[in-house]
Amino acid sequence: MPQDLPGLRAHIDAVDRELLALINRRAALAQAVGEIKKKEGSPVFRPEREQQVIEGLKAVNPGPLKNESLAPIWREVMAACRALETPTRVAFLGPAGTFTEEAALNYFGSTIVRVPCASIDEVFRATSAGSADFGVVPVENSTEGAVARTMDLFLTTPLTIVGETSLLVRHNLLRLREELDGIQAVCAHPQALAQCHEWLSRHLPGVERRPVSSNAEGARMAAQDPSLAALASTRAANEFGLHVLAPGVQDDPLNRTRFVMVADPQRQSLPAPSGMDCTSLVVAVANRPGAMVDLLVPLKEAGVSMSRFESRPARSGQWEYYFYIDLQGHPEEPHVAQALQALRAHCSFFKLLGGYPLDRH
Ligand SMILES: O=C(O)C(=O)C[C@]1(C(=O)O)C=C[C@@H](O)C=C1
């Protein structure tokens, strides 16, 4: 190997040409897979297969490339291959610059057709109506808990969950002017305002906190009115030409949001087991003593672990609740199937929301 800069760069150029030829060979193979899928009428996007490809490579990676760098590279390669099979249209809580858009790009790769939506309801509507193949919505935040609207829509729409991803969420105070003085209102999504409550109380006491439909919408408003500030990502700051007055103003430095990918089960079948999956369901039980225990016993007996348990009022006026449950494993794995069957018998309402690969990065 040469030791001088021009010599090393010439080697890099040669390796890049080899890589290009190999990636094109891979793309041609994916195109051939696409032809078979077209004939069979089966869905192009197979999250469990993409997960297996990445995990398989991580297991044999000799380095020096780090395993955490490997995943985003192959995600993009597979997204580009997928785009040759068919364009993937993804609806998300927009406008451009939201964390939900970032989650969509991380998960599906940047070659998607972006369908920004003004609300979580619209993401579900666009995906149900077929104007998008997938929808991406926030489902829970490590500081603020469940995203209520998303949970309610799981109940009332036929969409299923086909994937999940989580993001470290950093909020920044953004403004046209490079000073804190004279801010009349801070505009952001209610969740972001809540996540930055302490910082706002300390540094901008008495300033109005104005809830808007998304953080990027707040940034768009702040870009038009110098008296307004926004709480949003640095991507939104770039998108709308705003200054970052204070970076990372969220109360919890490890603030994370979990997003899920939803799809219409008529057009996108349930992902097959990947080896490390999550099963999501929503149930209701009769309002009687011991009903909760009856719900948990079948899980214990089948050896299934629960990773999330969340309740939402059923809005019946009777103090009845829906329970949102995440289980470890895939609904097609025998012990999970057994637990689901036993659970169903104890529930007055039972809806399987999906079985999908766990987010492993
Ligand atoms: O294996 C497939 O089913 C493919 O379509 C190929 C491929 C890939 O690029 O590896 C692309 C899209 C799918 O989501 C999964 C994998």
UniProtKB/TrEMBL annotation:
Q: Where in the cell is it found?
A: Cytoplasm
What chemistry does it catalyse, as a reaction equation? Answer: chorismate = prephenate; prephenate + H(+) = 3-phenylpyruvate + CO2 + H2O
Q: Which GO terms describe its cellular component?
A: cytoplasm
- Location of the Chorismate mutase domain: 1-89
> Which pathway, metabolic or otherwise, does it act in?
Amino-acid biosynthesis; L-phenylalanine biosynthesis; phenylpyruvate from prephenate: step 1/1; Metabolic intermediate biosynthesis; prephenate biosynthesis; prephenate from chorismate: step 1/1
**Broad class of where this protein is predominantly found:** cytoplasm
Q: Which GO terms describe its molecular function?
A: chorismate mutase activity; prephenate dehydratase activity
> Prephenate dehydratase domain spans which residues?
89-264
GO BP annotations listed: chorismate metabolic process; L-phenylalanine biosynthetic process
The EC code for this enzyme is: 4.2.1.51, 5.4.99.5
- What function does the entry list? Catalyzes the Claisen rearrangement of chorismate to prephenate and the decarboxylation/dehydration of prephenate to phenylpyruvate.
Q: Which PANTHER family does this UniProt record tie to the protein? A: PREPHENATE DEHYDRATASE P PROTEIN, PREPHENATE DEHYDRATASE-RELATED
Q: Under what name is this protein listed?
A: Bifunctional chorismate mutase/prephenate dehydratase
